[in-house]
Amino acid sequence: MPSSIHDRAVLHNGVQMPWIGLGVYKAEDGDEVIQSIKWALEAGYRSIDTASLYNNETGVGQAIAESNVPREELFITTKVWNTDQGYEKTLAAFDASLERLGLDYVDLYLIHWPMPGKYNETWKALEKIYNEGRAKAIGVSNFKQHHLEDLMRDAEIKPMVNQVEYHPRLSQEKLLAFCKEQGIQLEAWRPLLKGEIFEEPTLVELADKYKKSVAQIILRWDLQNGVVTIPKSVTQHRIEENIELFDFELSNEDMTRISALNQDKRNGADPDDPEFYKQFE
């Protein structure tokens, strides 16, 4: 369990990944994303999570270039979008992402969604990128257990990370247990459920008990469950607040109370919903 901002999750290939990062989904390319990253780096963040879908890789790259943080201290994640899946298209999409970011390599490259009939071929492209050293780690996003099992049957390299929707309303305990058993690091997107659970009485009570914000209580729950977390914000005080997680610890009882809020409720798409994928065919 991380006890310091400097602690790292160690992926199964030995790569060290910060426990908390800045998500930049819907952060506008240009000044907004650049400024939010600068605030994050000043606050001690070293992990930035973007994707080709977000249309802000150029701004992310500019913020990195303008920062005084050495590249080797940063952990940059991006993802291949659904319309770019398939072996050759993924290789081309990765090259385009690297160019927009202005980087020689990324620290983590992910398949954004398990596109039916495509993700195994896409994974072969990620394995090539990894073997060439252009991604220090590779993984997937929004994969359920059956997707992972299917992928691993044919894979030469096991995914290092699975980034999924994860918050107190969707605690994904079986998936988390499976990933831990397989040595796959689970990572939470939308960990704060866009603020929709900030009025939840249990969380409000715990925030008062620990003299922390509700967001900090949720993010600490992530970390104590062994889940890497990437809250999104473009507001300086929230960015700073979201990383102040290492001066308190939730009791086992309070961890259980938060987990009991689970309703298996998704805010984003269900990775098994065929209707979701039809738009990308």
Automatic annotation (TrEMBL):
Bias kind Basic and acidic residues: ranges: 263-281
UniProt cross-references to Gene3D superfamilies, sorted A to Z: NADP-dependent oxidoreductase domain
Enzyme active site: 54
Residues with site note (Lowers pKa of active site Tyr): 79
Family annotation (PROSITE patterns): ALDOKETO_REDUCTASE_1, ALDOKETO_REDUCTASE_2, ALDOKETO_REDUCTASE_3
Domain NADP-dependent oxidoreductase: 21-262
Region: Disordered, residue numbers: 261-281
Pfam families with a match to the protein in the record: Aldo_ket_red
Record's keyword terms, sorted: NADP, Oxidoreductase
Binding site for substrate: 112
GO MF term (any one): oxidoreductase activity, acting on the CH-OH group of donors, NAD or NADP as acceptor
InterPro entries named in the record: AKR (IPR020471), AKR5G (IPR044500), Aldo/ket_reductase_CS (IPR018170), NAD(P)_OxRdtase_dom_sf (IPR036812), NADP_OxRdtase_dom (IPR023210)
Family: Belongs to the aldo/keto reductase family.
Name of this chain's protein: Glyoxal reductase
Species of origin: Fictibacillus phosphorivorans
